[in-house]
Amino acid sequence: MKLDKDTILLIDDDQLSNALNEHLVASTKIFKNIIVKNGPVDAFRYIVNKVLTDKIIPGYIIIDIDMPDIDGFEFIDLLAELFEENNINFTPIYIILSSSNYIRDFELAEKTPSIKKMISKPLNSEKLISLFNEI
Question: Global pTM?
Fold first, then answer.
């Protein structure tokens, strides 16, 4: 099992946000592969399939925090369980996107070691370049 540092997974339940974020990430020319999933359920299925088949998972995941059914934090917890069940001892770098101003969300992001950054929506080129230079 390994992380593909050339691949980023974008997860948002809003298709317009996904399209915009995909365009912005592509414009940075940092990643060879950009995978887009419309919601956490599709993204989780994608990761499960990667774990069970080719054993290569995206090295970076940008996920919206506020989605129906499963929020960004719950998604990260589900992946942690999946990785533990499959004896995977590493995690992708998570970047949380949020329009939230709740202090609780920022505190939770800070307490989760695999979350490298929580950034406010909307995403833009400057934020992305600064973020990836920081990471």
Answer: 0.91
